[in-house]
Amino acid sequence: MTTLRIQSDAQEQADAADDWWRENRPAAPNRFIEEFDAALDELLRVPDLWPFAGLNEVPSARRRVLLVTGYAVYYCYDPKADHVDVIAVWSTRRGRGPF
């Protein structure tokens, strides 16, 4: 069974995104966390589905875009250990990557 770990920086980024969404999107305050949680569930089911992110700093990183909220979940998947490690949660609107 695939295991999941969210690095502390990524958790802080997700928490900040959730806080921002709740404060600035009163019509759908839970949208970010719902989409984020659904993406994490998907990563556990099919971790190798999403493409590599093309990051020089972390060549093995993959990117799962959250289409509704415009964030991306950057993660690494080790198939031998069957482990997903979320390394960043970043707004795609920032125009640059998380590293």
Terminus-to-terminus distance:
29 Å
Largest sheet: 4 strands, mixed
What is the typical, i.e. mean, pLDDT?
94
Number of helices: 2
CATH class: Alpha Beta
Helix content: 25-40%
The total number of structural domains is: 1
According to CATH, the fold-level topology is YaeB-like fold
What sequence of helices (H) and strands (E) makes up the elements?
Answer: EHHEEE
Report the β-strand fraction as a percent range: 25-35%
* Shape verdict: globular
CATH architecture: 2-Layer Sandwich
Low-confidence stretches: none
Q: What structural category arises from helix and sheet content?
A: alpha+beta
**Rg computed from alpha carbons, rounded to a whole number of angstroms:** 13 Å
Number of strands: 4
Can you say what the CATH homologous superfamily is? Answer: RelE-like
> How are strands sequenced across the largest beta sheet?
1-4-3-2
Give a written overview of the molecule.
- It is a single chain.
- The protein is α+β, with helices and mostly antiparallel strands and 99 residues long.
- It has one domain (3-92): YaeB-like fold.
- It is built from 2 helices and 4 strands.
- It has helices at 8-24, 31-45; strands spanning 3-6, 61-66, 71-78, 83-91.
- The chain has a 4-stranded mixed β-sheet with strand order 1-4-3-2.
- Helix 1 packs antiparallel against helix 2 (31-45).
